[in-house]
Amino acid sequence: MYKEPNIDPKLLKPYDPKSTEDRIYSLWQESGFFNPDVCIEKGITSPDAEPFSIVLPPPNVTGTLHTGHASMLVIEDIMVRFARMQGKRTLWLPGTDHAAIATQSKVEKLIEKEEGKRKNDLGREEFLKRVEAFAQESHDTIVNQVKKMGASVDWSREAFTLDEKRSLAVRTAFKKMYDDGLIYRGHRVVNWDPKGQTVISDDEIVYEERKSKLYTFKYGKDFPISISTTRPETKVGDVAVAVHPTDERYVEFIGREYDEVFCGVPIHIKIIADESVEKEFGTGALGVTPAHSQIDADIATRHNLPTIQVINEFAKITVGEENLLGKKTTEAREVIVEWLRAEELLEKEEDITQNVSTAERTGAVIEPLPKLQWFINVNKPIADRGGKTLKELMLEPVLNGSLSIIPDRFDKVYRHWIENLRDWCISRQIWYGHRIPVWYMGEEIYCGIEAPEGEGWIQDEDTLDTWFSSGLWTFSTLGWPEETSDFKTYHPTTILETGYDIIFFWVARMILMSQYLIGDIPFKTVYLHGLVRDAQGRKMSKSLGNIIDPLDMIEKYGTDALRMSLIIGTGPGNDSKMSEDKIKAYKNFANKLWNITRFILSSTEGITHNPEFSSYTGADKALIAERDELFTTITKEMNEYKFYLAGEKLYQYAWTQLADVIIEESKTILTGTDEKAKESRAQFLLDTMSKITITLHPFMPFVTEELWSLLPIRDKQLLIVTKWPHGSTL
RNA sequence: GCGCGGUUAGCUCAGUUGGUAGAGCGUCCCCUUGACGUGGGGAAGGCCAGGGGUUCGAAUCCCUUAUCGCGCACCA
Q1: Straight-line distance from CA A716 to C1' B41, in Å?
Q2: Which of A175, A441, A475, A560 has a 20 to 30 Å separation from A9 between CA atoms?
Q3: Residue A543 has what pLDDT?
C-alpha cells in the first residue's frame, strides 16, 4: 500500500462551488479535451473510434441566455460527456445565430429609445455596424454563460450563421436551388408585417384569439346578395362575390356583374361560383378581395379576376376620397361601418372571436399584401433526387425510420405539418442578414456565389429568412461546401437536441437542406425538450417579471445543483417547472458527495485504490453486485437518452444506499479488528466512490472533477476523459 | 373541425417490456452518534380524474366521459 499524505484541507470545509467551478472549467480548456483532435493526439481517443457529433442549437445574438438555453446545455453536455467517457470521437460544435429579424428589431428599438433615430436616419451601412456591435456584445455574453454552465463544447470550431464560411455555404445553397428551379421569384399575396416592414413566412405567424365583429351588409341598395366580413375596410378592393355552385339561394345570380360605388369607391363585382365557399358560414356568400386575402387570391386565380390593391405597406388605405384615403385600416373600418349604417346597408353586427394573425417578432397584425418575393418550391420534382419533391425528401427519413424523433409522438406532428406545407417565402425586407445572391441589370438577372463581372449590376436589396442559414447548420459548421475531413467524419451528426417549439422552423428546414444538398439526413436522432416554466407553470416572460436568470441560480447554488435540477424529472417533450427548492436540494447533494468522500478518505487514510483487488468479503461482493447492477441499468438508460432516470438513480444510490446504509455499517467494520474485512471494505468504498464520481460526472461535472482530483487513484487522467464503467466487468 | 399531451402523496413531478405505488419540497415526532445539522432516524399522507373492457393480475393496454393545456386548420 502507498502511504498518502493527510487528506486535502479543502475537504475539511463544506463544498464551495464558487471557488471551484471557474478553476475547473479553465483546467478543461487548457487540457484541450473538448476538441476531439486533441483527445486523439494525446492518446485518449482512438483515431478509429466511433464518432459522436452534435451541433449546438445556436443561441440568437439578441441578448442573454435563459433557463431554456440552460436546460438545453445541460442535456447536451450530459450526452457529450457520456460519449466522450465512452471513448467515442466526440465533437460538440458551438455557435451563435444572427437571428436576422429578431436582432434587427431589437437594435432598432434600442436606437430609437436611446437616440430617437430610426434605421433610415442612419442608412444601411451605419445601421449594420450598430447591429454588428450589438451582436458581438451579445455573443460574448452568451459564450461566457455557456462556459458557466460547464458545457464542454469545442470552442476552436465555433461558428456564426453570418460569418464568412457560413455565408459561402448560404450562397452556394441558394445558387444550387436557383439553378434547379427550386427557388423562384413570384408575385403573391404574402404575410406583410407593417411594423417590421417585411414579409414573414407562414411559420412566423402567431395566432391570437381576439374579440371581433362580423358585419353583414350589401355593397349597395340594389345589390342582390348580402355578404359577411370582419374587415369591411378591405371591401373597397372587392372584385367578386363567390357562392357555392349548388347554393339554391344564389344560383340564379351566378355570372351576373354589377357596378357599385362603395363608400365613394367605384367597384365592379362579378358573381362567381366556387366550391371553396361554405354555404353555412355567414350568408353563404363571400366577398372576394384578391389583394388582401390569400384564399381570395386563390379564388381570383381560378376565375381570372383582377387584383386591386387598396392597402399599402403601412396598413393604410390607398383609394377613395379624404374620408378613406391615407387612413389606417382600423380607422377606415369605422368610417365604412358608419357609411353602411347611414346608407342602411348594414344588416347585422355580431360579436365573434377570431384568430388574428400577428407577427411573432413585432406583434403587429399581419396585413396580407400582393408582393414580389423569393420562394422555395416544395412541390417541384428534383431530377438528381430521384424526381422527389422537397416535401417528399423531408418526409422520407421520418417515415422509413432512418431519422427518429424522441419522443416519437412528434412524428405525427411533423408529418402533419409537412402535409400542409406551402412554398416557403425566404426573402425579407430587412438589412441584417444574408443578402440574396441575385443581381439585376435591366431585364437581366444573375444568380451566383460571387457578384457578376462587369459594371451596372445591382444586387437584390432583400436578405434571407434567418432559418435559411440555420437550415444548413449541421454541415455548414463542418466546412461544407468544402469536402473537409470534419464533414466526412461527423456528418450526419449523431443527434440533434432542441426545443419542440422549433421543430418546424428549424428541424424541418435542416432535414430539407441536408436531404437536398447532401443527399443525406442531417442527424440520426432528434431529441426534443420542453419549455422551462416558472414554479406556477407559467411561461417565463419579461412582462410577467417571472424570469429566473440561470446565472443567479449558479451564483447561489452552483452549476452542478442547477444542472441536476434541470435534468431530473424532465422527460423529453414535456414542459418542466423551475423550482428553487429543487436546486437547493441538489446543492445539498453536492455537499453530501463531498462529505461522503471526506469520510471515506479519512477512514481509509493511507490506502490507495487498487482496481485489481480481489479479496473482497462475501458481504462486499454482494454490495458490488448490487452496485454494478445499478451501473448496468444506468448505462443502458444513458444510451437510451433517459438521463432523467439515470441521474435520479445515481442520486438515490449515493444518498440512501452508500451514505445512509453502507457508510453507517462501515463505521463498525473499519474501526473493528477484522483486518481482512477492513481492507475489503476500504477497497470497496474507494472503488465505489470512484465509480460514483465517474458516473455522476456528466450530470455534475464540477464537483466530481474536483473530488476525482482528491481520490487516491493511481495514474489518473482528468475525470472528463476517464473511461465510463461498463457494469460489473470494470 | 383535426390531432397531440396532461390528470399519481399538501405542492412539483417520476414510474423503463402490465406483477404488492416512488422522489424532491412541505408536515409531525425523535437524535449535538466520532463524514455531513446543507445532517441522521422514524411517521403520517394516494379508491394512480370518472366509468367500462382485455387479463390470473392494469397507474401501465383498449374504449368512453370529464377537465386542463398545446399544435395545426378554419377564421367571409
Answers
A1: 38
A2: A560
A3: 62
Give distance CA A585 / C1' B66 (Å): 37
Grid coordinates belonging to A728 = 460489473
pLDDT of residue A4: 43
Nucleic strand B under 7 Å from the C-beta of A353: no
Tell me the β-bridge partners of A285: A243
Residue A205: which nucleotide is closest by CA–C1'? B72
Classify residue A429 by its DSSP letter: S
Q: How many CB atoms lie within 10 A of CB A564?
A: 27
pLDDT digits (tens, 9 = 90+) for A411-436: 888 888 888 888 999 999 999 999 99
Is residue A588's beta carbon less than 7 angstroms from any atom in nucleic acid strand B? yes
Nearest amino-acid residue to B6, taking CA and C1': A574
Q: Would the Cβ of A282 be found within 7 angstroms of any atom in strand B? A: yes
Distance in Å, residue A521 CA to nucleotide B59 C1': 38
Beta bridge partners of residue A159, listed in sequence order: A95
The share of chain A scoring above pLDDT 70, in percent, equals: 97
Residues 38-67 of A with CB under 7 A from strand B: none
Q: Rounded mean pLDDT of A509-526?
A: 96
Strand locations in A82-169 (E): 89-93, 95-96, 159-160
Q: A207 versus A371: which is more confidently predicted?
A: A371
Strands A532-533, A205-217: pairing is unpaired
Please, which residues have CB within 8 angstroms of residue A182's CB and are 6 or more apart in sequence?
A376, A377, A380, A382, A390, A516
Q: What pLDDT, in 10s, does the model give residues A270-318?
A: 999 998 888 888 898 999 999 999 999 999 999 999 999 999 999 999 9
Contacts of A449 (CB under 8 A, 6+ apart): A168, A171, A172, A175, A437
- The complex scores an ipTM of 0.90
Distance A455 CA to B21 C1' (A): 78
Of A447-461, A478-492, A530-544, A617-631, least confident by mean pLDDT is: A530-544
The predicted pLDDT at position A580 comes to: 81
List the one residue out of A59, A70, A64, A144 whose CA is nearest residue A566. Answer: A70
CB A214 within 7 Å, strand B: yes
Q: Which helix (H) or strand (E) holds A264?
A: none
pLDDT bin (cut points 50, 70, 90) of residue A46 is very high
With both helix axes pointing from N to C terminus, report the angle between A410-419 and A390-399 in degrees, rounded to the nearest 10.
Answer: 160
Q: How confident is the model at residue A728 (pLDDT cuts 50, 70, 90)?
A: very low
- The C-alpha cell at A9 is 484541507
Residue A668, nucleotide of least CA–C1' distance:
B34
Cα A28 → chain centroid: 27
How many Cβ atoms are within 10 Å of A106's Cβ, its own excluded? 20
CA-to-C1' span, A420 to B5 (A) = 21
Mean pLDDT of chain A: 91
Separation of alpha carbons A158 and A154, rounded Å: 7
Spanning CA of A370 to C1' of B8, the rounded length in angstroms is: 54
Q: Which nucleotide is nearest to A353 (CA to C1')?
A: B75
pLDDT score, position A6 = 57
Q: Is the pLDDT of residue A67 over 50?
A: yes
Q: Which of residues 530-559 of A touch strand B (CB under 7 A)?
A: 533, 535, 537
- Kindly tell me if the per-residue pLDDT of A121 is higher than 90: yes
A2: exposed, middle or buried (C-beta count within 10 Å: 0-12, 13-18, 19+)?
exposed
Q: Which nucleotide is nearest to A576 (CA to C1')?
A: B13
- How do A438-441 and A444-447 pair as beta strands? antiparallel
User: A194 preceded by cis ω (within 30°)?
Assistant: no
